[in-house]
Hints:
α8 (190-213) packs antiparallel against α9 (220-233). It is built from nine helices and nine strands. β5 (134-137), α6 and β6 (173-176) form a beta-alpha-beta unit. It is α/β, with parallel strands linked by helices and 292 residues long. Strands 4-3-2-1-5-6 form a six-stranded mixed beta sheet, with helices on both faces. A three-stranded antiparallel beta sheet has the order 7-8-9, with helices on one face. It folds into two domains: 8-185, 3-Layer(aba) Sandwich (Creatine Amidinohydrolase, Chain A, domain 1); 190-289, Alpha-Beta Complex (Creatine Amidinohydrolase). 34% of the residues lie in helices and 14% in strands.
Amino acid sequence: MSKSSPNPNSSPSMFQTDFPSSEFSARRKDVFDRIGSNAVAVLQGASPRGELELFRQSNEFYYLCGIEVPYAYLLLDACSRKTILYLPKRNVDQERSEGPILNADDADLAEKLTGVDEVRRTEEFSADIADAETVYVPQGSEKHHNPLDLLNTHPTREARFIQKLKDFCPQVKIQDLSPIIFSLRTLKSPNELKLMQRAGQLTGLAVAEAMRCTKPGIMEFQLRSVADFIFLANGAKGGGYPAIIAGGANAWYGHYFRNNCELQDGDLVLMDYAPDYGYYTSDIGRMWPING
């Protein structure tokens, strides 16, 4: 059997469709207004989770440009009020295996999709910030190492990035960008509200279906699988956080996550689970009798 050529109408999407480029541009304008005219803001995109695992961008990076490409960087220069997006160069072998991936060689397309002023290769990033004096960087999104893990002394990716910035420009003063982004995100746009409402709807559908499937003798994780089906079948990336499916006394544990116990007749079951839908989620907890 011979393989047919890829159909361009069915090729994997390289960019999100929930927000227009004008909305990302407006968000970046708000950042310019808040960091001061002599500062720059720099964001490091997420790295891949693992081979052939669905990539998920960091919330802050996605909020400002919508790019879902690993190893991307974003530079917001408040002095010129221009934004530069840094992407890896085209990897032909990877695209042959996985499909098209937005890259630095697609500069015109990336500029059109995101509204940024310029797209450059990632290797140009360090030279472009060499003269920066004040750099705003998101901080606190990565968990610190557990002190009980005595042998793990490696710094987090976030800490390594900040150290690299100091190496690139020793004179730099690092400021935290996270409070600014958090403040901007408290006011939701109509497009954001649509995604949040849909996430809430899918959560309700998942809970209702889980109720219908509940009976003594099934396992907690089987109710999670019901919710996962509802989420994925309706366009979500999966769960927005670890599922809490707690039968009986397990409901007393606020963050019970093992979901490996059998549901017992006469007990109640608690479900606290919601989808990751377009980088937005919900948070709904419901409890019902296992025997109906």
